[in-house]
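ingest -> validate -> predict -> emit
validate: passed (alphabet ok, no gaps, 345 aa)
predict: started
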Amino acid sequence: MKAAVVEKPGVLTLREIPEPEMGDYDALCRLLFGATCTGTDQHLIAGRFPWPVSYPTILGHESVGRVVRVGPKVRHFKPGELITRVGTLPPPGSGLNAHWGGFTQWGIARDHRAMKEDGLPPQEWRRYRVNQVVPAGIDPRGATMLITWRETFSYLTRMGVREGCSLLVIGSGGNGLAFVAHARNLGAQTIAVVGNVEREAVGRTAGATHYFDYKGNDLAKAVPEASPGGFQFLIDAVGKSGQIDLAIPWLAPGGILGIYGIDEYHACSFNPFRSRGTFTFYNGGYDEEEAHERVVGYMQSGQLRADVWLDLEHPFPLEGISAAFDALRQRRLVKALVRLEEGDA
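emit:
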């Protein structure tokens, strides 16, 4: 099968690799579509991922697959079901690694619930809790957004964003826009974005009540006017060092700020004395599984629409994945959709 492989920093290729081997708790899935992650994927390609990486590595963690066959101990997946976050494991002896192996044509979903029920240790099944069933009726193309939406929804709700609150988001990429949409769905009153001026229309479609050009000269005056008492919540969805310093004066006393982006993960710093008063730094992470049902519900009700992030009608073929990342670097797309298998999905 074909797989997108980062051979070394700066080099993305397509390789032929063996199809994955199944274990007792595994479901073999035909991978249908994958979405690009501007943060993780592009950092891996550029060699800027903030954690150790052994190249070459199979790329992709926002892919969905259709179950074709299940192992003898699988009880919670059925042939024909659509599963999230499916990827392939590195073929034994190949010298390949995987982060997380979703840009390929066949993958494995693991029945973590059966493994837990059968008493296997958590370290063997915990990471596969991201393999969740997508209800019938949800378009596989749009289902690729579940990964981004689950991560960001879990993060936002753990922070405490709620009805009637005020939120400021730094960044207008896929994650930044996801925070905006979730805040709208949760009933936040003021949702402001500091981002790329070319993304204002999509930002307002996602739910922003205020939008500011990050290159604007009047940010120090204009942003506070959106929430005169300060913002109760502040999320940096980019993560460039020093960036949060500019926004800390806009945080309300007693507010909560979080740095979600990973651009300069190990070099992030800010001066707390720029704040209006005492604040909390949120560092509680997220959990995809806990957000799955609520995010699916928002999709089914039309409150989360994948076409705000993705061009659903014109996916890139797997062979054209380099062009997909070129489009991201040129800011022509928020996220790119990649068709992983030819034919009807």
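The mean pLDDT is 96.
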